[in-house]
Design brief:
about 120 residues; alpha/beta; six-stranded mixed β-sheet; 4 helices; about 25% strand; globular; DUF5615 domain-containing protein; DUF5615
């Protein structure tokens, strides 16, 4: 799997990523809604997936064993942006950065820019 989408992002994000040729699932599709962050992290590791989330806690490597972490995308967009805008900006950012550049990195996506650092 390329991407695991956390429940704090629209369901349509995983659908749009699939339409672009990526393998993507939402944590809800895996019937893991409501799981603690530590369990969401484990699912991402088990699925060899880059986790996409709005949860800043995932960006703190001291909280998680990052040795087997495929990657992380933290979406930091204004709360007033509608779901369709979040999906559009996130997918466009992922396409611009490229899957290979996301692997092994923590990437923060913001409106019009992004920051990446290796895990």
């Amino acid at each position: 799997m390329d991407f695991l989408v956390d429940e704090n992002l629209p369901n349509s994000l995983s659908e749009e990523l699939r339409s672009k040729g990526f393998q993507a699932r939402n944590i809800r599709e895996l019937e893991r809604k409501g799981d603690p962050d530590s369990e969401v992290f484990k699912v991402a590791v088990e699925k060899d997936a880059i986790l996409i989330t709005r949860d800043l806690e995932f960006g703190s490597p001291e909280h998680y064993d990052t040795e087997n972490y495929e990657g992380l995308v933290i979406v930091r967009l204004d709360a007033s942006i509608q779901a369709s805008g979040i999906v559009e900006k996130t997918v466009n950012g992922i396409l611009k950065i490229g899957l290979e550049n996301l692997k092994g990195s923590i990437t923060v996506l913001e409106s019009g820019r992004y920051r990446t650092r290796e895990i």
